[in-house]
Automatic annotation (TrEMBL):
Gene3D superfamilies: Ribonuclease H-like superfamily/Ribonuclease H. It comes from the Eukaryota. It comes from Gossypium armourianum. SUPFAM superfamilies: Ribonuclease H-like (SSF53098). One of its GO terms (cellular component) is CCR4-NOT complex. One of its GO terms (molecular function) is poly(A)-specific ribonuclease activity. This is Uncharacterized protein.
Length: 118
C-alpha cells in the first residue's frame, strides 16, 4: 500500500474514506497479476463439459520494478509466490489489450448471464 490510513481512520471504519484510500492505491499502482473466477447463478465454476473446473490467472507486463511505485512488502510476497517480474515484462499481457478484450467479450456488462466474477 502506498497510501495508508492512520489507525484512527481504520478504527472509525468509514467505508467512504476506506474506499478512497483503496482507490488511490489502485490508481497509483500498475497491475501485476489478476486471478479471475467466473460463477453461474448456482455458484458453479465453468467446466466446459469436462471433469475439471476452471479459473484463470493473468500476469501483466505493465509493471516495471525499476520504474514504478510499489509497496515493498507486497513485492516480496509476490516474489515468494513465484511472480517473476522480469519474465512478466517479457511475456506478460498488456493490460490495455486485456481490458479491451474483457469489454469486447461482454464480461463487463454481464452479457452471458453470469452471477459473479471475482
Amino acid at each position: 500500500m502506498i497510501f495508508k490510513p492512520s489507525k484512527q481512520v481504520i478504527r472509525e471504519g468509514n467505508s467512504v474514506i476506506n474506499y478512497q484510500y483503496m482507490k488511490s492505491n489502485v490508481d497509483m499502482l500498475q497491475i501485476i497479476h489478476l486471478g479471475l473466477s467466473i460463477l453461474d447463478a448456482w455458484g458453479n465454476l465453468p467446466d466446459f463439459y469436462s471433469p475439471f473446473s476452471y479459473v484463470w490467472e493473468f500476469n501483466f507486463r505493465d509493471f516495471d520494478i525499476n520504474r514504478d511505485r510499489y509497496a515493498s512488502d507486497s513485492i516480496e510476497l509476490l516474489k515468494r509466490q513465484g511472480i517473476n517480474f522480469e519474465k512478466n515484462k517479457e511475456k506478460g499481457m498488456d493490460s490495455k489489450n486485456f481490458a479491451k478484450k474483457f469489454w469486447d467479450y461482454g464480461l463487463v456488462f454481464n452479457c452471458y448471464g453470469l452471477k459473479s466474477i471475482t
